[in-house]
């Protein structure tokens, strides 16, 4: 098997120039450390706290998360003792995934809702909501154009913007009218979602297997919402609405 040659790319140009030689020395020691059998390497470096944090983050990312780097400050000095540790393949994959989710989160933060609205329209895909006539009126007025004076005109305006619209409350009402026994006595979203889960005997795990959460929304499953309260209520309703529509 061909032995891999370890090389580090140049450090990002955000560290003070006076630390350049020390950083280059640290690079060389890490390069020599990686193919060896020692599990840990310690290196002392004189730098500020921001520079120390930057060194840790930059080295880990540029080394594709082959090592974990942390530091401790030496009391009454500017010295920082860095500890470089090799990590397992499982831990490496976890760090990659964590960085991916962090990057996705930052991308979502940069994307303004107006751009998101334009992307929805450009996609030509159906939109799904629950009892959301007034919501569509608000969104059209805020992001598209002024509202017309009559419902018929608004309906034409809305369908010229979105080809297909589904309302899960209207669907549940239609199912009730077309059935001998009403499967949804209460057509509120929470009641519909609960009824569907009971009818199909779906646990939080089976729901995750059938309905994949989008990037950045990994905590929006029933377990996280119920036990950890990590999800925003309005966005959880969107997830539930999608689950109901997918089941319909």
TrEMBL record:
Coiled-coil stretches, from where to where?
none
- A Gene Ontology molecular function term of the record: RNA binding
SUPFAM superfamilies in UniProt = Ribonuclease H-like
The record's section on Pfam families has: CAF1 (PF04857)
InterPro entries attached here? CAF1_poly(A)_ribonucleases, RNase_CAF1, RNaseH-like_sf, RNaseH_sf
Tell me which family the UniProt entry assigns to this protein.
Answer: Belongs to the CAF1 family.
Q: Know the name of this protein?
A: CAF1 family ribonuclease, putative
Lineage, broadest ranks: Eukaryota, Discoba, Euglenozoa, Kinetoplastea, Metakinetoplastina
């Amino acid at each position: 098997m061909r032995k891999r040659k370890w090389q580090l790319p140049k450090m990002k140009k955000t560290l003070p120039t006076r630390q350049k030689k020390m950083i280059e020395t640290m690079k060389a020691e890490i390069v020599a450390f990686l193919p060896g059998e020692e599990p840990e390497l310690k290196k002392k470096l004189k730098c500020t706290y921001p520079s120390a944090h930057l060194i840790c983050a930059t080295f880990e990312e540029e080394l594709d998360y082959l090592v974990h780097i942390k530091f401790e400050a030496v009391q009454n000095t500017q010295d920082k003792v860095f500890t470089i540790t090799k990590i397992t393949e499982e831990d490496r994959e976890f760090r990659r995934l964590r960085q991916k989710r962090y990057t996705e989160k930052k991308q979502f933060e940069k994307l303004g809702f107006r751009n998101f609205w334009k992307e929805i329209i450009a996609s030509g895909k159906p939109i799904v909501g629950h009892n959301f006539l007034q919501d569509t009126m608000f969104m059209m007025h805020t992001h598209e154009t002024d509202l017309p004076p009559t419902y018929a005109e608004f309906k034409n305006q809305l369908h010229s913007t979105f080809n297909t619209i589904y309302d899960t409350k209207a669907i549940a009402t239609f199912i009730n009218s077309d059935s001998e026994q009403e499967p949804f006595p209460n057509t509120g979203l929470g009641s519909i979602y609960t009824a569907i889960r009971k009818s199909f005997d779906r646990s939080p795990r089976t729901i995750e297997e059938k309905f994949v959460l989008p990037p950045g929304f990994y905590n929006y499953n029933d377990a996280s919402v119920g036990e950890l309260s990590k999800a925003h209520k309005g966005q959880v309703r969107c997830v539930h609405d999608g689950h109901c529509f997918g089941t319909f």
